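Students often ask what a holo structure prediction actually looks like on paper. The answer is less mysterious than it sounds. You provide the chain, you provide the ligand, and the output is a string of discrete structure tokens encoding the 3D arrangement of the protein together with lysine.
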Amino acid sequence: MVNGQDTTELANKYGTPLFIYDVNKIRNNARAFVHTFEKLGVKAQVAYASKAFSSVAMLQVAKQEKLSLDVVSQGELYTALKADFPVEKIHMHGNNKSAQELEMAVSHKIGCIVIDNFYEIKLLDDILANYKTEMDVLIRVTPGIEAHTHDYILTGNEDSKFGFDLANGQAEKALQMISESKWIQLKGLHCHIGSQIFETDGFVMAIKRLFSTLEEWKTRHAFVPKVLNLGGGFGIRYTSEDDPLPLSGYVEALVSEVKVHVNRIGIPYPEIWIEPGRSIVGNTAITLYTVGSKKVIPGVRNYVAVDGGMTDNIRPALYQAKYDAVLANKASQKVAETVSIAGKCCESGDMLIWDLDLPTVEHGDLLAVFSTGAYGYSMSSHYNRFPKAAVVFVENGKDKLVIKRETYQDLLKNDLSYE
Ligand SMILES: Cc1ncc(COP(=O)(O)O)c(C=O)c1O
Ligand SMILES: N[C@@H](CCCC[NH3+])C(=O)O
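The corresponding structure tokens follow.
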């Protein structure tokens, strides 16, 4: 069941593979962040990192929950505009923002641009001069933190494609360049150390480094931040190996560490912004698949293949990410075998789960994979020309289709004949 709905009926109604989101859970996650800041009396913005899962319906929910929004491309911004998201609450990221992306952000008067590199400072300044308008920005810095997570989702280390390094003085150079601009208004600093992080030590260490820089900048440049954006990255539970904090725990750790340093260096408490993606949507969805073929290699492994795979969930192939699953139509039956779940792409690496204990698996069973709400649909592809899956929202026991399953016509809509 998902929020009172029988998943086997949803599979009949919408087909598989199918993403099913529990919208009440999305709202609860969003509120856990917002309410904790309110309880602690800290002015904050909780910006949903829409890269985790962006669609018009999802951004409408984020808007209803009074969240802000992090976008990293024109496509994500376009989706936000179509969802009628309040523009002043949209923040734009990107390590290679194009002139068109920046112009779109400027012409729609979005709330803030997170500056990532020197090239972008010049580009943005020229665009703003052209539009004769100002824009609030944050400088994205890399504090030199090696958070405990997969190398591919580390972002706050010195050797990173993102942001300005604090230690080698590049961030300070960016501050100087920006202060010479008539149009760019520096509000503060941004830092995101990585994703799927469980311990608070990495965040605490990053805040320490930010404040040792801010202490120097206060003396050297009389710079006092109005905003500190501490990014996202809060870990969630995929399998029993994961032990995340409650969402409030991450916020409490950030807020109290900032308090220590604000008092130490004698500046007013800044607004705290965060950018959670995974922790808002990750544990709110399952993916339903239909079981097809089974290959038993005696003494080696039992492969069970489903009607999706790396095209709707690249995370196991890309980061060796682990997932848990059950047979939705046999949820109360006893475990009878250990199987490995294969996708249907023409790739040996297209495996969703290794060594999963299930009841006897048969053709036509429904496999429900848990915690697929973040970076599943949003990272899906058309490899082997598989149409993208459908997405259903369930709220208060009612289901609603929010992204249609792609058709073969959709797949070919940009193909032109060469005859
Ligand atoms: C700048 C930035 N903000 C926010 C996020 C969201 O991270 P998560 O989904 O782990 O909360 C990411 C992704 O890692 C990111 O790169
Ligand atoms: N896409 C990654 C996380 C990186 C997110 C953006 N910086 C994941 O699935 O875990």
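The CA atoms of residues 157 and 317 lie 23 Å apart.
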